[in-house]
Design brief:
Length: about 325
């Protein structure tokens, strides 16, 4: 196989991205969570896309803006495939990171094209700066910036049943068959589906144990118990009880990066014979990813809420 400039660009870009991924996997650095930084999520793919187009344009090719975007995606796609095949990353993290990776690689490719068109006398100088950008910015971000914030996701559904009928479906949840849960985005990307929930008692401070697929088990401590009105709880999640293969480690429940804190079911009488059931979950995010991480958290938990509320509606209306 002849190593054309195009192939060199793909290989060099992919190796550059994989190098950063492997470095942050080292035991001496993994505790810093460098993979969930703005530098890794945005600057590394920018550099990957820039490097790919630099190699392409070096041979004097004329590349349109649309072609620059398409070519910049090639090494990113190789990176993502390699991380999945080698089990460096699971499907969940790959899906969540892909929009940022492809977008930033596109910007990098367009930047390389602009430099090629407007700085023909010195097209090589910006390359080194771009390649060093993640290396310089990551330590600064990890030492100077840290972010931790909470937000709440809330969804509701109207059920053709009384609050008393709906209430019976909330605390103890019988085994959930696959047919009862519609196909969802969460299942598509590999998030386990819930199997059942059981309570140690029907009162304040009781423990509700939730069991999911892939051996995921966690507890919810009841903090408010008003029959036919409200059940609120605090998540009690032991990360050691969450199997490594069940969820990608960067989105592991109860981990240092991301975790649900509180939840609540609220029931309100609507028009005669109907109940509005509301499910809310408060989440903690300890990344520096800001709105990007929050959007994905809202998407995933909205998807999960809709699935659970639909189950409650189906069961309450059929009994």
């Amino acid at each position: 196989m002849t190593l054309t400039p195009s192939r060199i660009g793909i290989i060099a870009g992919a190796l550059y991205g994989l190098l950063f991924r492997v470095i942050w996997e080292l035991d001496s650095l993994s505790h810093l969570n460098g993979l969930v930084t703005l530098s890794f999520l945005f600057l590394v793919p920018f550099a990957v896309g820039y490097l790919r187009l630099y190699c392409e344009l070096k041979q004097g090719s004329n590349v349109s803006s649309s072609s620059a975007i398409r070519l910049a995606w090639q090494p990113v796609l190789v990176c993502l495939l390699v991380t999945v095949v080698t089990l460096l990353e699971g499907s969940i993290c790959v899906v969540l990171a892909s929009p940022a990776f492809f977008f930033c690689a596109s910007i990098g490719g367009l930047a390389a094209r602009w430099v090629h068109l407007h700085r023909k006398n010195a097209p090589h100088k910006p390359l080194l700066s771009v390649m060093l950008l993640p290396i310089v910015c990551t330590p600064v971000e990890l030492t100077a910036f840290s972010s931790s914030y909470q937000y709440t996701v809330t969804d509701s559904i109207l059920i053709a049943a009384t609050p008393e009928q709906v209430w019976r479906e909330i605390g103890n949840v019988d085994v959930i068959s696959k047919q009862e849960l519609p196909w969802s985005f969460g299942q598509l990307i590999g998030i386990p589906r819930p199997l059942r929930a059981s309570m140690t008692g029907l009162a304040h401070n009781a423990i509700r144990t939730s069991e999911w697929e892939k051996g995921v088990v966690f507890e919810e401590v009841i903090t408010a118990w008003e029959p036919a009105k409200q059940m609120a709880y605090q998540f009690k999640i032991d990360p050691e009880r969450i199997p490594d293969h069940a969820l990608d480690k960067h989105v592991k429940l109860g981990g240092e990066i991301f975790s649900p804190l509180y939840g609540a079911y609220t029931l309100e009488s609507a028009e005669e014979g109907f109940t509005r059931l509301t499910l809310s979950t408060t989440l903690e995010d300890n990344t520096n990813l800001g709105w990007y991480s929050r959007v994905w958290g809202q998407v995933i938990f909205h998807d999960f809420h809709v699935m659970l509320l639909g189950l409650m509606k189906q069961r309450a209306e059929q009994r």
